[in-house]
Amino acid sequence: MRRKRRLPPASLPQRDGIDPVRVALPADGPWPTVRAYLVERLPVGPGVVDAMVRDGRFVGADGEPVAPDTPYLPGASVWFHRDLPAEVPVPFALDVVHRDEHIVVVDKPHFLATMPRGSHVTQTALARLRTELGIPTLGAAHRLDRLTAGLLLFTVRPEERGAYQTLFRDRLVHKEYEAVAPYDPDVPLPRTVRSHIVKERGIIAAYEVAGAEPNSESRVELVEHRTGLGRYRLTPYTGRTHQLRVHMSALGLPILGDPVYPVVAGPVPPDDFRRPLQLLARVLEFTDPVTGAAHRFTSERTLEAWEAYDTWAR
């Protein structure tokens, strides 16, 4: 097996839990200076690069700022921090459920993305935890949708992250979710739902392909019901994007607060935290691949539409 090449250590610290960007200088090229290479290759105007150089925002492997005349050094690395987008703070706490020298398990609130992506960068579980816990090496072993609340597993040591990620890849983690959705006595439950789900890049909603070989499987159970609503236990046996949301919608039981299934709703202001998706990652159970310990974690969160529907719906 070909060993993955180790990247050089960053010569800038994290900022707000976000790693600096590394620019690798090619082994050969016509550039007389580092500045000339950056002007040609970075997707910004030359004036932007020059301003960043004047401000000392590019640094070499030794941590020293790149000067306008710093000679080009083939194979070297240059580091800098991108300008981060302004983000509306997600006004909900990340509750630490478990922490040891190998892993951190947290109970994520709705509206907080797992990892930096797109317009969500510092307001993510990973960035916030790195800052709040003072663990810059923290990494996510798996992810939850931004709109889904519940249990998330993070690793402390980068060299151990692959072992925990493999648990999810090999389906060695038992996961249970809870959802609030309409109750329909004509939908026979419990049942196992299997379908072929496709999620295309750049398209919000995933979709099912009728007649194709199933690549997703979920167990759907009704726990209790009242006044037209049901509380459901959902057990995914595979991990397709939006899988539980797609399967519940296909049953005619779309999860309350879902802005995508069955119909994609219009955008909402970034500071609108009303009517969160009523989906919660309730249970996370696995055998620790590093210590051998048997772990079972349970979320203490509740789904508001079940506890106080009128408050959730207002």
Folded structure, characterized:
With 314 residues, the chain is an alpha+beta fold. 18% of the residues lie in helices and 25% in strands. The protein has helices at 34-41, 46-54, 125-133, 158-169, 243-250, 304-307, 309-313, and strands spanning 21-24, 77-80, 95-99, 103-108, 139-140, 149-155, 174-182, 191-195, 197-198, 207-208, 216-226, 229-236, 279-287, 294-298. Strands 3, 4, 5, 6, 7, 8, 11, 12, 13 and 14 form a 10-stranded mixed β-sheet that branches. Strands 1-2 form a two-stranded antiparallel sheet. The radius of gyration is 23 Å and the shape is elongated. The mean pLDDT is 95.
Secondary structure elements and pairings:
Blueprint: E1 21-24, H1 34-41, H2 46-54, E2 77-80, E3 95-99, E4 103-108, H3 125-133, E5 139-140, E6 149-155, H4 158-169, E7 174-182, E8 191-195, E9 197-198, E10 207-208, E11 216-226, E12 229-236, H5 243-250, E13 279-287, E14 294-298, H6 304-307, H7 309-313
Parallel strand pairs: 6-13
Antiparallel strand pairs: 1-2, 3-4, 4-6, 5-6, 7-12, 7-13, 8-11, 9-10, 11-12, 13-14
Strand content: 25-35%
Give the N-terminus to C-terminus distance in angstroms: 57 Å
- Low-confidence runs (pLDDT<50, min 5 residues)? none
General form: elongated
Number of helices: 7
Task: Please state the structural category.
Answer: alpha+beta
Write the element-wise H/E pattern from the N-terminal end onward. EHHEEEHEEHEEEEEEHEEHH
Cα gyration radius (Å): 23 Å
The pLDDT mean sits at 95
How much helicity do the residues have? 10-25%
Summarize the main sheet: 10 strands, mixed
The total beta strand count reads 14
